[in-house]
Amino acid sequence: MYAIIQTGGKQFKVKAGDIVEVEKLDAEIGSAVKFDYVLAVGEEGGKLNVGTPRIENAAVEAKVLDQFRAKKVIAFKMKRRKGYRHTVGHRQNLTRVEITAINA
User: Fold this and answer.
1) CA distance linking residue 19 with residue 22, whole number of Å
2) Are 61 and 20 in contact (CB under 8 A)?
3) Cα 47 to chain centroid, rounded
4) DSSP characters for the chain?
5) Most buried of the four, 6, 28, 50, 60, by CB within 10 Å?
6) How many other CB atoms sit within 10 Å of the CB of residue 4?
7) Model-level pTM?
8) Counting Cβ atoms within 10 Å, is residue 21 exposed (0-12), middle (13-18) or buried (19+)?
9) Using CA atoms, how far apart are residues 40 and 3, in angstroms rounded to an integer?
């Protein structure tokens, strides 16, 4: 069984036992979190239950494994022959979670 959840403005296809890196959640390491915004629930090669826009009374439970920062992303702008160079770096805060259960 798998589910498609939405968190942090992104959608993830998850199964029980998966480890997923999502946008930063305000949760302690080792605590349990619950994703209530479930868009679809289905079985591999079987039926897919799609919500409009989400499935009521469905939730995905997860355990927080780590709070960390992603690799640095460099944004570099340059205009040739003008002497213009501009560099900006950014590191996103992320949370690593392990999916424990899918309640449809």
Assistant:
1) 10
2) no
3) 24
4) -EEEEEETTEEEEEETT-EEEEE--S--TT-EEEE--EEEEE-TTS-EEE-SSS-TT-EEEEEEEEEEEPPPEEEEEEETTTTEEEEEEE--EEEEEEEEEEE-
5) 60
6) 20
7) 0.85
8) middle
9) 6
What confidence tens digit (pLDDT) does each residue in 73-97 have? 999 999 999 999 999 999 999 999 9
Residue for token pair 């079987």? 46
Q: Which residue has the tokens 């479930």?
A: 38
Would you state the structure tokens that stand for residue 89, as one six-digit string?
């770096």
